[in-house]
Design brief:
about 350 residues; 2 domains; Tumour Suppressor Smad4; disordered N terminus; Rossmann fold; alpha+beta
């Protein structure tokens, strides 16, 4: 596993930090919120900042900040913005061998990664507190190294790579997809926006599954799973998730496996036994003793997971649609030093 050598942390935490902000102006924020953030940044001319309207301009934005030797990169957006930035930084290396410290703000529709890292609910307040810590030479108190999930998919030269903190297929992918569709309807925004929406939709689908409904979007997917080279099961699954986070949205901790591997992996096969009784304990990371691979529930910490599947998947809320006979490889050998904002 690559570690602290990759980060500017050891070189910069005790000296002056050059701070840069990537502003995603479309990350679920109101114009009032955007205006407040831009006003704050204008009052701090020592903080570099670039504005983005979509993921397509992130490479140029990061190249601009890398050319100015930014040590600490603030991500003013949500999970999708952070995922795009992690992928660009780790796959294309605009910052070279030393990665910047990365501080995600809770400024998007979904902020699962920033929440797990302890970011302030108010992104402007969090940014101000972090800048104060940097000026006082105390930024090290806010730094936490975390592994980042690497998701490689496809075959041969067309193989794609994404980096993020969460991977999901099956029920969770469909729940996010449904939540996105609902969010696009203006009259539904008040009840389905962001993490509350994802929680409601996921709970609703899980409730249907508990009652025995496996129709439509609840139909299980066919997968073959190999964990550290060992075939677990080839069949149908309701849910497959993997993450390097400690907890997911709604404070869920659906990982209870043992082992030193950096990829937390959980899968629910179809059929499985007593999913209604199993659900509460699983979501807390403390399942009943009968919740085992033999009854349809697998959870392990692994170095490498390989999935052979045709269904779609999600990485940090971004969606990839089905592709025939796709192979997906999951690992977590890269470390990023995150900063609590």
């Amino acid at each position: 596993m690559r570690g602290p050598v990759e980060s500017r942390a050891s070189l910069t935490m005790g000296t002056h930090l050059r701070i840069g902000v990537v502003n995603n102006l479309r990350a679920g924020k109101s114009q009032e919120q955007v205006g407040r953030m831009l006003g704050f940044l204008r009052s701090h001319p020592d903080v570099l900042h670039v504005e983005t309207q979509n993921a397509g301009v992130i490479p140029d934005a990061l190249a601009e900040l890398a050319a100015k030797d930014v040590d600490l990169l603030v991500v003013n957006g949500g999970d999708g913005t952070l995922q795009s930035i992690l992928t660009e930084i780790l796959a294309s290396n605009p910052f070279g061998e030393r990665l910047p410290l990365i501080a995600p703000l809770r400024a998007g529709r979904t902020n699962m990664s920033a929440m797990d890292l302890g970011a302030d609910r108010n992104p402007l307040r969090g940014l101000a507190a972090m800048l104060a810590s940097a000026r006082a030479g105390r930024i090290a108190e806010r730094v936490e190294p975390r592994r980042v999930l690497r998701v490689a998919y496809g075959f041969g030269p067309e193989r794609g790579v994404q980096y993020g903190m969460f991977f999901g297929a099956g029920l969770i992918k469909r729940a996010i997809e449904l939540n996105h569709r609902l969010f696009d309807q203006d009259d539904q925004k008040s009840i389905v926006e962001g993490v509350p929406g994802a929680t409601l939709v996921t709970a609703g689908l899980l409730g249907r599954l508990i009652t025995g409904d496996q129709s439509g979007i609840l139909e299980p997917d066919k997968l073959q799973i190999l964990l550290d080279g060992e075939e677990v099961h080839q069949g149908e699954y309701h849910l497959v998730i993997a993450s390097t986070l400690s907890r997911l949205f709604a404070r869920m901790r659906p990982f209870w496996g043992k082992g030193p591997g950096g990829v937390r992996f959980t899968a629910i096969a179809a059929p499985c036994e007593k999913i209604g009784k199993a659900a509460i304990g699983m979501l807390r990371g403390r399942p009943a003793s009968w919740v085992t691979p033999e009854t349809g529930y697998t959870s392990r910490n692994v170095e490498h997971a390989e999935l052979r599947m045709s269904c779609g998947f999600t990485v940090d809320g971004e969606l990839w649609q089905p592709d025939p006979d796709r192979s997906v490889a999951l690992s977590a050998d890269r470390v990023v030093h995150f900063v609590r904002a």
